[in-house]
């Protein structure tokens, strides 16, 4: 019986899917000048989802595999930095303020993309095994400047 349960869980994991859809909007406000603050606002759809901000130097494509749960494809070229924003609010939104240090020594043009990840676990209902799905919602890619 335990073996059948383990097999059912494994089958459920293998049947899990990941989908990415562009269903959010990212806006960036602020000049990015030293001593100021950049504000990143992600307006999404899913409340209680994990929100992230990906930042890179160039636009392009980066695929991040999540094993049997699928692959996330971003509109930024690797390498990139990912900043967790926390959970989205009841409206599906998340934001972060990033202060630019007074003595920021360089001038950079960069790109950002927001994303949310929603994990859904469906309990077993015999004869159906449990299932796990990971759903991504990506935003537009936005350019911003930091420095003088």
Give a description of the structure.
With 148 residues, this protein is mainly β. It has one domain. It contains 1 helix and 10 strands; from the N terminus they run αββββββββββ. The chain has one helix at 2-15, and strands spanning 18-22, 25-29, 37-43, 50-56, 59-65, 71-76, 80-87, 93-99, 108-122, 131-146. The strands form 3 sheets. The protein has a 5-stranded mixed sheet with strand order 1-10-9-4-7, covered by helices on one side. The chain has a 3-stranded antiparallel sheet with strand order 2-3-8, with no helix packed on it. β5 (59-65) and β6 (71-76) form a beta hairpin. The longest helix has 14 residues, at 2-15. It is elongated. It starts with a helix and ends with a strand. The relative contact order is 0.31. Residues 1-19 have low confidence and may be disordered.
């Amino acid at each position: 019986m335990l073996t059948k349960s383990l097999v059912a869980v494994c089958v459920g994991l293998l049947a899990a899917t990941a989908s990415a859809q562009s269903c959010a909007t990212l806006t960036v406000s602020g000049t990015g000048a030293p001593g100021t603050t950049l504000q990143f606002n992600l307006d999404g759809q899913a409340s209680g989802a994990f929100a992230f901000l990906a930042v890179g130097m160039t636009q392009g494509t980066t695929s991040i595999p999540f094993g049997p749960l699928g692959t996330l494809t971003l509109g930024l070229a690797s390498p990139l930095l990912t900043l967790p924003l926390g959970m989205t609010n009841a409206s599906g939104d998340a934001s972060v303020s990033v202060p630019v240090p007074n003595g920021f020594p360089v001038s950079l043009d960069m790109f950002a993309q927001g994303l949310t990840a929603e994990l859904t676990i469906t309990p077993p209902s015999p004869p159906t095994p449990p299932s796990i799905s990971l759903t991504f919602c990506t935003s537009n890619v936005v350019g911003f400047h930091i420095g003088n």
